[in-house]
Write a structure and sequence with these properties.
The complex is a heterotetramer of chains A (140), B (218), C (226) and D (241). Chain A has 140 residues and is α+β, with helices and mostly antiparallel strands. In chain A, 21% of the residues lie in helices and 31% in strands. Chain A contains two helices and six strands. A five-stranded mixed beta barrel of chain A has the order 1-3-4-6-5. The longest helix of chain A is centred in the N-terminal third of the chain and has 24 residues. Chain D has a single domain, classed as Four Helix Bundle (Hemerythrin (Met), subunit A). The chains are: A alpha+beta (140), B alpha/beta (218), C mainly alpha (226), D mainly alpha (241).
Chain lengths: 140, 218, 226, 241
C-alpha cells in the first residue's frame, strides 16, 4: 500500500474536505427541491405559462377550499402568497398550516398543479397544547 | 553442478474449492537442467506449473524460487525472471505478431530494435505484420519463443510445448531450452507425452494422484 | 533488466488497449451507433411532444452515456485471456498500473462516445440552451473518468465468470448513480442559475474515491482472476 | 446458555422496551399515528447502513489478513443489510403515502439512492453465488463490498446534496429539532434493532461456518485428487458399440 501513498493520501484528504464542506454548507442553508413563493415570483420571467416547476410553501389558514375535482388554497412564505388551483385528491394529511409542495405551471396569476405532496420537515414535536405528554390525541 | 536448486517445493498442496488437485508435492528444480514431469490429462500438471511460476499460491506448503520464499508480497523482480508458455498463446488477436512482441519488449524494458532481430531468429521475418488472429497456431507459438529469447528468463516453464508443432518449430523449442540451460537457468516441461521430451531432460517425475514421484516411467 | 516505471507501464497498457480498439472498432462501429439508436427511439416511446423532448434531452443523454458507455468499459474481458494476464504478471506488471492504463483507454473511448452523442442529442432534442454551458464539458470529462473507473472495477470483479455479461451491468448501473446525480444536478443548477459547486464537487469526490479503491484493490483482483 | 440464546433473549427484551416507548411517545402534531412508522423505518435504515459498514470493514480485513472469518462476516452482514434495506424502503413507502401523498417520489434523492444501494448489494449476493472457489469469491466480493459502500454515505447525505422531499438530518445535529420523548422512543428502537442485528449476525455467521464444515466433510469423503477421478476408457466396448 505504501507504494501508492503519494496518490492515496492526498486523494482521501480531498474527499474528506469535500464531504465535510458539503455537510457544513447544507447545515447552514436548507436545500429544497422546490421554489419558494418568493423565488417563484422573482423568477416569474424564467417560467412562462405552461413551464412546469415545483413550488412549496405554507398553506395559509383559511384559504383551503374544496372544488369539484380538487382543492384551491394559497401558499405563502411570509413574503409572497400564490393562489394554487390543484386538480386531484390531496393526501390524507393535507390541511391548513402544513407545508405543501405542488408541481405544475403558472397560468396568469394562479398556479395550476396536478401533483401535491405534504412536506414534513425535520421538526418532530408533540402538540403544543397537550396537557399530558403521554396522552394520545384522537384522530379527527 | 550440485548448487542450491532454483525452485524448491515443500509439502505443497493445492485445492480448487474443496477439490484437491495436488497433495504434498516435494520437488526440486536444479539450475542448468531441464526437468520433465509427465502425467495424464487432468492430473494437475498445469496447476503445478502455475505454482512454480508463482502465479498460484498453494493452499498449503512452501515454495521457494531463486532462493526466495514466496510469501504474500512476491517481489516483482523475481517474476520477471520466469517465463511460462502455456496451453493458450498469450497474444492479442487484433495486434500483429510484431506488435505483440513490441508490447512485451517495452513492458520488460527492452529496446524495440531487438524485436525484428528476434522475429528473424524464429523465422517469422516475412509474417511479422500479420495479425495474430490470422496466424496459425505454430506461428503464434514461434512468437512466444521469440518472447522467451528476448526476455532471457532463468526459469522456463513449458506446458505441452511440442503439442501441435511441426518439426522445425519443435526443434526451435529444443534450441530455446538449450539456450536457457546454457545460461545456467532451468526449464521444466510438463506433458502427457514422455517420448518427445525424453531426449531433452536430465530428470523426470511422474504426477500420480496429485503427488510427484521421481523417476517416472523412464 | 528493469522494466518501465509505473506510468510507463500504464502508458503501454493504454496504448495497447487503444490499438486493439482501433483494429476491432467495437466502440466506433457498434457501441456508438447503438447509443444513437437509443437516442432516436426514446422520443418515439414518450410521444412526439416537443417541449417534453427538449426538457428530457440532457437526462436521456446521461442515461444513454451510462448504459451504453459502460459497454465500452467491458471490452477487456474479451481480449484479456488468462494467458495474457499471466504473461503480464510474469513481465513484472504492477496491477495498479494496469488498472490505470485500462481506465485511461476507456476514458479516452468514452470521450469519443460522448463527443459523438452530445452533438447528436443537441440536434435531435433541441434542449433549452443554458448559460455557462462550458461547465458541462467538465462534467462530461468527470463522467467519463468515473464511468471508466466503475466499469473497469466491475469487469475486474466479474472477469471470467459465466454470468459476467449480466452481472457487470447490474453492478455498474446502480454504482454510477452518484455520477448521474452529479451530472444532472449540474445541468439543473445551470438552467436555474444556482450554484454548481456542490454537484461538481460530488463528482470530483466520487471519482477520487473510486480511483483510490481501484488502485489499492488492483493487486487483489489480479490475484483472484487466475 | 450459548451465545445465540443470550443474544436472542436480550433482543426480545429490548424489542419489548422499544415497543413500550414507541407506544407511549407523544404523536407528532401533524402526522398523528403515522409518527409510529418512524420507529420501524428509521431503525431499519440505520441497520442497513450499519450492516454495510460492517461489510466494508470485514472486506478490508479479509484483503489484508486473509482469515475466512472476515469473509463470513462480510457476507452475513450483506444478507441482513439487504433485508433491512428492503424493510426501510417498504415502511418508507407505507409512511409516504398518507404523509406526502405518494408511495414513490421520483424527485426524492433518499429514495433513489437507497433503492440503488439495495440493488448493488443484491448484486453482491449474486456475485457470491457465481464463484465456486472460496478464496476467489472472498477476494472479489471484498472488492465489491468496498466499492458498493460508496452508495451508503451518498444515501445518508443525499438529503444534503440534492433537493429532496425527505426531511433533513434530524437526530445527528447539535440543535436536534425533535421532541425529547419522541427521540427517546426512536433511540430505544434503534438500540433494539441493533441487538436484533447482532443476534442475526451471530446466527448467520454460525450458519455460514456450518455450511463450510459440511462442505469440508463431503470433500473429505470425496477426496480423490482431480486427476485420479479419471479411469481408463473401455476401448473394447467403444469399438463394438
Amino acid at each position: 500500500m505504501t507504494r501508492y501513498r503519494w496518490f492515496v493520501l492526498p486523494a482521501i484528504g480531498a474527499i474528506v474536505v469535500i464531504i465535510g464542506w458539503m455537510v457544513f454548507l447544507s447545515l447552514g442553508e436548507n436545500l429544497v427541491y422546490y421554489l419558494t413563493p418568493n423565488e417563484a415570483v422573482e423568477q416569474r420571467a424564467d417560467f412562462p405559462d405552461g413551464e412546469r416547476f415545483r413550488l412549496g410553501g405554507q398553506v395559509e389558514e383559511g384559504s383551503l377550499m374544496e372544488t369539484d375535482n380538487g382543492v384551491e388554497f394559497t401558499v405563502s412564505d411570509g413574503a409572497h402568497e400564490i393562489h394554487i388551483v390543484h386538480v386531484g385528491a390531496p393526501p390524507e394529511l393535507f390541511r391548513e398550516g402544513v407545508g405543501a409542495i405542488v408541481e405544475g405551471a403558472w397560468d396568469g396569476d394562479v398556479f395550476r398543479s396536478d401533483e401535491l405532496v405534504v412536506k414534513h420537515d425535520e421538526q418532530y414535536q408533540a402538540p403544543e397544547d397537550e396537557g399530558h405528554p403521554y396522552e394520545v390525541p384522537t384522530d379527527a | 553442478m550440485p548448487s542450491s536448486p532454483l525452485v524448491q517445493l515443500n509439502d505443497v498442496a493445492v485445492r480448487y474449492g474443496r477439490v484437491p488437485v495436488l497433495n504434498s508435492v516435494e520437488l526440486e528444480v536444479p539450475a542448468g537442467e531441464a526437468t520433465g514431469i509427465v502425467g495424464p490429462n487432468g492430473s494437475g500438471k498445469s496447476t503445478l506449473l502455475r505454482v512454480l511460476a508463482t502465479l498460484l499460491r498453494p493452499t498449503e506448503g512452501r515454495v521457494s524460487v531463486f532462493g526466495t520464499e514466496m510469501g504474500r508480497e512476491t517481489a516483482f523482480s523475481i517474476r520477471r525472471r520466469i517465463a511460462l508458455i502455456g496451453h493458450q498463446p498469450a497474444l492479442y488477436p487484433q495486434l500483429t505478431l510484431r506488435e505483440n512482441l513490441v508490447f512485451v519488449s517495452r513492458l520488460s524494458g527492452h529496446s524495440e530494435e531487438r524485436v525484428d532481430e528476434m522475429l528473424d531468429l524464429v523465422g517469422l521475418a516475412g509474417a511479422k505484420h500479420r495479425r495474430a488472429e490470422q496466424s496459425s497456431h505454430g506461428m503464434q507459438r514461434r512468437v512466444e519463443f521469440a518472447r522467451v529469447i528476448l526476455t532471457k528468463p532463468d526459469l522456463l516453464l513449458l506446458d505441452e510445448a511440442h503439442a501441435g508443432l511441426d518439426r522445425e518449430a519443435g526443434q526451435l523449442v529444443d534450441a530455446v531450452v538449450e539456450n536457457v540451460r546454457s545460461r545456467g537457468g532451468a526449464a521444466v516441461f510438463v506433458s502427457h507425452e514422455l517420448d518427445r521430451m525424453l531426449p531433452l531432460v536430465q530428470s523426470t517425475y511422474e504426477l500420480v494422484g496429485g503427488a510427484v514421484i521421481p523417476g517416472g516411467s523412464r | 533488466m528493469t522494466g518501465p516505471s509505473f506510468w510507463g507501464q500504464a502508458y503501454e497498457i493504454g496504448r495497447k488497449d487503444m490499438r486493439v480498439e482501433g483494429r476491432s472498432g467495437e466502440v466506433l462501429n457498434i457501441t456508438i451507433p447503438f447509443g444513437a439508436v437509443a437516442l432516436l427511439l426514446i422520443p418515439l416511446a414518450i410521444g412526439i411532444d416537443r417541449p417534453l423532448i427538449a426538457s428530457v434531452g440532457p437526462g436521456m443523454f446521461w442515461v444513454v452515456t451510462l448504459l451504453f458507455g459502460m459497454l465500452v468499459t467491458f471490452r477487456h474481458s474479451a481480449t484479456e485471456t488468462v494467458a495474457n494476464r499471466e504473461m503480464m504478471v510474469l513481465l513484472g506488471m504492477d496491477p495498479a498500473a494496469q488498472f490505470v492504463g485500462r481506465v485511461s483507454a476507456s476514458f479516452l473511448l468514452l470521450l469519443v462516445f460522448e463527443g459523438v452523442l452530445a452533438p447528436l442529442t443537441i440536434v435531435l432534442y433541441n434542449p433549452d440552451p443554458v448559460s455557462g454551458w462550458p461547465v458541462l464539458l467538465v462534467v462530461l470529462l468527470l463522467m467519463a473518468i468515473g464511468l471508466a473507473l466503475i466499469g473497469t472495477l466491475a469487469s475486474g470483479i466479474t472477469s471470467g465468470l459465466r454470468s459476467r455479461n449480466t452481472l457487470a451491468p447490474l453492478l455498474v448501473a446502480p454504482l454510477s448513480l452518484p455520477l448521474l446525480v452529479g451530472a444532472s444536478q449540474t445541468y439543473e443548477a445551470l438552467s436555474q442559475e444556482s450554484s454548481i459547486l456542490t454537484p461538481i464537487l460530488l463528482l470530483v469526490a466520487v471519482v477520487l474515491g473510486l480511483a483510490v479503491v481501484g488502485v489499492l484493490t488492483a493487486r487483489f483482483l489480479e490475484e483472484a482472476s487466475r | 446458555m450459548n451465545r445465540h440464546r443470550i443474544l436472542g433473549l436480550s433482543a426480545l427484551v429490548v424489542i419489548a422496551i422499544g415497543l413500550y416507548f414507541g407506544s407511549q411517545a407523544p404523536l407528532d402534531q401533524l402526522q398523528g399515528e403515522y409518527t409510529r412508522i418512524m420507529y420501524v423505518h428509521v431503525p431499519s435504515a440505520w441497520l442497513a447502513y450499519l450492516s454495510f459498514l460492517v461489510t466494508l470493514v470485514a472486506s478490508i480485513l479479509w484483503l489484508t489478513k486473509r482469515r475466512l472469518v472476515f469473509d463470513r462476516v462480510a457476507e452475513s452482514s450483506v444478507s441482513i443489510g439487504v433485508f433491512f434495506t428492503a424493510l426501510a424502503l417498504m415502511t418508507g413507502m407505507i409512511w409516504g403515502y398518507p404523509v406526502w401523498g405518494t408511495f414513490w417520489d421520483w424527485g426524492d434523492a433518499r429514495m433513489m439512492t437507497t433503492a440503488l444501494m439495495f440493488f448493488v448489494y443484491v448484486g453482491y449476493l449474486a456475485l457470491r453465488r457465481s464463484i465456486p472457489d472460496p478464496a476467489m469469491r472472498a477476494t472479489r466480493s471484498a472488492v465489491l463490498g468496498i466499492v458498493a459502500f460508496f452508495l451508503v454515505p451518498l444515501s445518508y447525505l443525499s438529503v444534503l446534496i440534492v433537493r429532496t422531499l425527505h426531511q433533513g438530518i434530524t437526530v445527528a445535529r447539535p440543535d436536534s429539532p425533535i421532541d425529547g420523548e419522541i427521540l427517546l422512543a426512536l433511540l430505544s428502537n434503534v438500540g433494539a434493532f441493533t441487538v436484533v442485528y447482532l443476534t442475526f449476525m451471530s446466527l448467520k455467521t454460525a450458519i455460514a461456518r456450518g455450511e463450510e464444515e459440511l462442505e469440508e466433510q463431503s470433500a473429505a469423503v470425496d477426496a480423490t485428487p482431480a486427476g485420479a477421478a479419471i479411469t481408463a476408457p473401455n476401448l473394447e466396448k467403444v469399438r463394438d458399440v
